Backbone:
């Protein structure tokens, strides 16, 4: 770390407890005049450098500097506390954060001369290893199995990136902060004494990012005469909302308490702070629905559910109308006991469900891999694609009596789980009762 006149080393403890440190400082006079040596820079930041071009998503800026120097590395800290928010934000099977490429723009170039193949590759490992490791130029010294705090280092000593006029470095970040994945970094570079360091000192709690408010519930259906009580929760700033689908601004309604909604409405809300920062916009959709009448079957009904079993390799639900079933029959309830092998198969269940009274019913499917649920030919729950165990739900306004029910499921690899639950008027959420299921005799 060359310096011309003086250097100050200051260590701050941001914790509430005491810590012991063993510090060694080594000093010697350089052979070259200090004014001719580049200065070493190491700066921490988190979300304090906005991207000017909105078309540059998903780039997240590591370093922006002007002058002559060399980029020599970065420590990246990733907070990804749960897979589920990322799945919800980006789709089933998309919970791994390590696919973002590094991009280094040197001396104002329009296309980056360094364009990597993924965050995991840049930091020296692939397949998201949960293990600690240390190598001469890369390491992982904090790990929570990619579902918490991950800290990775990349030191570009032998492959440093020289620049004469400017350096603009990015890493692609596919998941927004609101889905639970948050980045911060400490970036390292050498810069000539007359260069411009745009990374001004910041407090560890400083960030341009503002958490989006949370709308509870986000989506629901209701019947005429009913109302939905909606809450909007936030951590900082002031929440503004609209009820006509327009973008909230400071001229919109300020949120002060729960809202009663009695008609079909699109609610949008976001946080706006006094210092000009803003969160992303979140939406709630509330739909006034009508009861779907019961269906009268043409044949005599008996208890059970019909199934048809198929085999094949799929990454999403197949078109069952184009397939020939290998096995069919009637079961007492939804079950995967009819399968013939561990992987690469599908089951289609069909029959009738008898509901005790008029009202709004919620159907849940918790599955690994993909599934869908239909009532009277309308898709109520879509939990398709290859993914780990996850639950999705949907609502339907149904009159008392019989309704056609169809449930589709496929298994690709590893675990196979299918759980179907029901909630409705005077019915707490529970596994789909066998006494409600019927087939035509």
Residues:
């Amino acid at each position: 770390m060359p310096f011309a006149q003086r250097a100050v080393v200051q260590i701050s403890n941001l914790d509430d407890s005491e810590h012991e440190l063993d510090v060694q400082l080594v000093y010697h006079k350089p052979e070259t005049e200090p004014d001719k040596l580049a200065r070493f820079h190491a700066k921490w930041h988190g979300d304090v450098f906005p991207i000017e071009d909105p078309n540059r998503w998903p780039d997240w800026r590591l370093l922006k500097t002007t002058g002559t120097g060399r980029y020599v590395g970065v420590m990246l800290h990733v907070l990804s506390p749960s897979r589920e928010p990322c799945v919800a934000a980006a789709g089933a099977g998309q919970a791994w954060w390590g696919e973002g490429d590094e991009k280094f723009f040197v001396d104002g170039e329009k296309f980056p001369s360094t364009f990597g193949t993924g965050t995991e590759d840049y930091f020296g490992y692939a397949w998201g290893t949960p293990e600690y490791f240390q190598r001469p130029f890369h390491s992982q010294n904090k790990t929570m199995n990619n579902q918490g705090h991950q800290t990775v280092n990349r030191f570009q000593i032998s492959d440093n990136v020289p620049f004469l006029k400017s350096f603009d470095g990015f890493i692609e970040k596919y998941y927004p902060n609101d889905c639970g994945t948050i980045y911060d970094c400490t970036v390292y570079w050498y810069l000539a004494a007359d260069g411009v360091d745009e990374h001004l000192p910041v407090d560890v709690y400083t960030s341009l990012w503002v958490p989006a408010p949370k709308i509870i519930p986000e989506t629901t259906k209701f019947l005429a005469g009913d109302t939905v009580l909606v809450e909007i929760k936030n951590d900082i700033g002031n929440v503004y909302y609209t009820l006509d689908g327009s973008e909230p601004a400071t001229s919109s309604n300020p949120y002060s308490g729960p809202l009663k909604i009695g008609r079909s409405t699109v609610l949008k809300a976001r946080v706006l702070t006094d210092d000009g920062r803003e969160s992303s916009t979140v939406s709630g959709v509330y739909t006034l629905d009508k009861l779907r009448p019961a269906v009268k079957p043409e044949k005599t009904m008996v208890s059970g559910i019909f199934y048809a079993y198929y085999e094949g390799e799929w990454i999403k639900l197949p078109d069952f109308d184009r397939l020939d079933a290998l096995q069919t029959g009637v079961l007492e309830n939804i079950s995967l006991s009819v399968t013939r092998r561990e992987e690469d198969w599908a089951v289609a269940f069909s029959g009738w469900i008898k509901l005790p009274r008029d009202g709004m019913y919620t159907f849940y499917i918790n599955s690994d891999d993909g599934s869908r649920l239909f009532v009277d030919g309308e898709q109520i729950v879509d939990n398709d694609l290859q993914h780990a165990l996850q639950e999705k739900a949907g609502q339907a306004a149904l009159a008392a009596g019989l309704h056609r029910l169809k449930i589709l499921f496929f298994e690709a690899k590893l675990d196979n789980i299918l759980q179907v639950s029901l909630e409705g008027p005077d019915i707490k959420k529970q596994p789909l009762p066998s006494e409600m299921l019927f087939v035509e005799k």
Observations:
- The chain is about 5% helix and 45% strand.
- The domain at 218-289 is CATH 2.60.40.10 (Immunoglobulin-like).
